[in-house]
Amino acid sequence: MDLKNIYREIINEHNLHPQYKLEMEHPTYCRQGVNPTCGDDITLSLKVNEDGVIEKVAFAGSGCAVSQASTDIMLELIEGKTKEEALSLSQAFMRMVRGEASDEDMESLEDAAALADVAHMPARVKCATLAWHTLEKILSE
Ligand code: ZN
Fold first, then answer.
1. How far apart are the first and last CA of the chain?
2. Average model confidence (pLDDT) for the chain?
3. Ligand 1 centroid vs 49 CA: distance in angstroms?
4. Which of 38, 58, 118, 131 could disulfide-link 45, Cβ–Cβ 3.0 to 4.6 Å?
């Protein structure tokens, strides 16, 4: 299987079987993100402890496969990380979208690197970055 197919598989898997599409009671942060051009609508819930560690993550919502997979992949990546680490991952993701990611960035993004090709398609950029933009808004609160 070539890399493009592996990437497609990762996106399909996260879209069909999201790990973090869960209910969360009493989240520290809860924020909705909408991409009207595609109809993507997600709500992120994060539980952050006193040390600034993102202990629990969840999302609700609907939309295209790219937006849903990207959200699930992002949450998997930031669970257990500090807010600062999550922010630097977000910056790495945005560099990837712009085609400026270093090898180190790509490595740190793990499964999110599967979105590299999709993220370069003009019609898909907003779908791929929706969760990350919503996360950045939470982190800047
Ligand atoms: Zn979309």
1. 43
2. 95
3. 31
4. 58
